[in-house]
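Input sequence (702 aa), recorded before submission:
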Amino acid sequence: MNRKERVASYINSKEYVPLKFGELAAVLGVPKTDMQRLKHILAELTGEGRIAKSKRGRYMPVDIKGGITGTLICNPSGRFGFVACEDGGDIFVSGSDMANALNGDTVIVKLNSASGRGKREGNVICVLERANKTIVGVIYKEKDGCLCLRPDSRRIYSKIYIAPENSCGAAVGDRAAVSDLDYNADGRIYASVTDVLGDESSVSGIMEGIVISSGIKREFDAETLTEAAHTAKTVTEHEINGREDRRSELIFTIDGDDAKDFDDAVSVERLDNGNYMLHVHIADVSYYVGEGSAVDTEAYERGTSVYLPDRVIPMLPETLSNGICSLRPDEDRLAFTCSMEIDGSGNVVNSRLAKTVIRSKERMTYNNANTLLEGSDDALNERYGYMLPALREMERLAEILRNKRMRRGAIDFDFPECHIVMNAEGEVEDITAADRGVSNRMIEEFMLAANETVAETAQKADIPFIYRVHEPPSVDKIRDFNKLILKYGLQINTGAEDKAVTPKDFQRVLDEVKDSAGERTVSSEMLRAMMKARYSPDNLGHFGLAAKYYCHFTSPIRRYPDLVVHRVLTKLINGENISPRGIAEAASHSSEAEITAENAERDADDLMIAAYMSRFVGESFDAVISGVTGFGIFVELDNTVEGLVRYESMNDDYYMYDEQNGTANGKRGGRMYGAGDRVRVTLIRSDILSRQIDFIFEENNL
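Predicted structure, token format:
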């Protein structure tokens, strides 16, 4: 068999996984001197129709050419999944038809022509991209003595085999991370242990597993740390030259009690014409993080800081994020300032961007600012009284800006946020509903105004840019939402007719159910109907904010898109040429990094909540019903913790789910449970592994 036939035979073999040119050359052991010959052979085979080349440059057997490419999404509650296809549809795949594909893999699927259930069904015939570089789970032994890993993710059905020499000392019952996955021809998946995370019941081990399995880097590499360590620690006179000097102005930061990186400060003044002049000062991170530097490369890869209950995994090394880039009080700092003249209706009538040097007068906290505005603490008034006039002006301006947003139809979701309080030992001390006081909303309005103003400046200058976009909900999602709110006598235009759906349509629904029993359910379902906000090089507007222009400018310490925006704006005000190179890639990558971070943060929060609540099994709590489903009733405690009351635990009657009215109705006694009802519940289970919290109604407690 000649060389060409050997290559063709290998690519069409059952063991073959589609490879790119370099990968194929490495597997075949082709020396550098024969690389051109291999390219020629592959071109010939492709031209003859004996093999195919995908859009991503992978060579594959010709018989999969007619397949459909997509991402496999496995169901956590059963052995089946769907392939989300590039053509916009989904294809159902049973567990037995997934070959050795795992959740998240990019696959080629062939439709099953025998399907007659009114939906597309198929089977995976090829894996193009492996999504799971590292898998976390618990070590156990099979009956035949083989060491295996049971994945924590319920979306990964396959057992992972571990050779004894690759166990890294992990014992049965340990939680471990494995990588170097080898998809063997016998259908088994083999891997090597890279991290032993302790006993399977260890909360800290589970937390580490969340971070590792998310692919989030826990440490900075040596080159990045060295480069960051050599960054200047103070601002020099040379750096101040050419910048607007704002150090004499009353500028201060307002952040949470435990914040360490202060990337925004504010100041406000009242003009002679009655308008407000709002200055939003943002840390000039782009001055210290050069494009293409080691720190920049690392920041791009991370995309965002990750905020977990027990730690922050920063986008930038702490010597920068908590040091020279942090707007600490009584220290000169380089800033990028957005100044906005705002009239009594909340309109920005004039704006300007400038590179500045500032000196924050105070490190104010939300709690202290709120107390000052309430005037309820004499000691605070004595300490910060000189700031009170400025805070009063800010309070008035924030109300003007908020009223403008509401008039134009911005959607105001007012969910109580969960605040997890950690102690020095890394354990949850308390869980409370986060307090969003006047100063919290004030800073939020100022940041929104700056982000909108900067985006509008970029759009009108017609420069390459990263926008924060939020598209309108799809017609199908609006129709599904309409089914739910119909019982409240409400409907939303689907946007399928000539009249486009607007944010006001949704806000009107929220206003109608405000303070009613169905408010929480309607708000939650509306949020699910919304599209996910993302970063884009195209200005598509922000539906939720009812904004024509929006971007992220105000947090370059913790978000990479903000850093890119700063660089672009620096070139704009300097009159330099702005290249679009890398803008689209940075937008797409940052959107993906954001989703990864949000998933890890949600999993970590759920873990800590379950661990905290496990202390209170057997205790009773006041709660409100937050939703009714076909399998049980969700209840929420006053501290925002949510759990499930299963129908089988309700032994006073046989309850049936009324989907049309969203209630659970007793078949014999006629008792009805619905969203918004106040109830008394007893905690019966809080499992840290599944993060499942179960309650029963107190009257069903035997």
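Checked by second reader. DSSP finds 18 helices and 33 strands in the chain.
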